Amino acid sequence: MRTLCSGTLIAEFLIIGFAGLVAMKDDDLSTGTVWAVCGAGMLLSLLLCGLLTRPGGVALGWVLQVGLVASGFFVPMMFVVGVLFAGLWWSSVHFGRKVDEAKARFAAATEADQPDAV
Predict the structure, then answer these.
(1) What does pTM read for this prediction?
(2) Which among 88, 33, 29 has a CA at the least distance from the CA of 41?
(3) I want to staple 69 with a disulfide (CB 3.0 to 4.6 A). Which of 33, 82, 110, 118 is the partner?
(4) What number of helices (H) and strands (E) belong to the chain?
(5) What is the Cα–Cα distance from 81 to 78, expressed in whole angstroms?
(6) Whole-angstrom Cα distance, residue 94 to residue 75?
(7) CA-CA-CA-CA dihedral for 23, 45, 9, 70, to nearest 10
């Protein structure tokens, strides 16, 4: 799961940065505010790569997905991009867990097939 989810989070890091560049063109938003919010989102996406295996790591990933969709109120295209990445996040978590379970079954079967060496 960690590999799939980390890939998604790294892509989100880049998307958040690009969204910040687009948001800077809005005269109603200050540059400092845009980069404070985008910087926090980018930092969270990087930190989550290391926190995925810890309790609450995936839940924090969902918080990031909600924030990404909500950023559409400032950069309208982010509604679409946010929903796409939320779907990608779901599939990364879902299929990543299936891969982890298959690896565990394979490891258990391989261990059971080998005689005990003493």
Answers:
(1) 0.85
(2) 33
(3) 82
(4) 4, 0
(5) 5
(6) 29
(7) -40
Among 56, 85, 52, 51, smallest CA distance to 68 is for 85
pLDDT, residue 118, reads: 58
| 116 secondary structure, DSSP code | P
Which DSSP helix (H) or strand (E) runs through 118?
Answer: none
* DSSP type of residue 29: S
| Regions of the chain where pLDDT drops below 70 | 116-118
Q: pLDDT, tens digit, for every residue of 41-72? A: 999 999 999 999 899 999 999 999 999 999 99
Report d(CA 91, CA 32) in Å as an integer: 34
CB-CB contact of 72 with 78 (8 Å): yes
Q: What is the pLDDT of residue 112?
A: 81
Give the angle 27-21-51 at the CA atoms, nearest 5°: 125
| The pLDDT value given to residue 95 | 95
Neighbours of 63 (CB within 10 A): 12
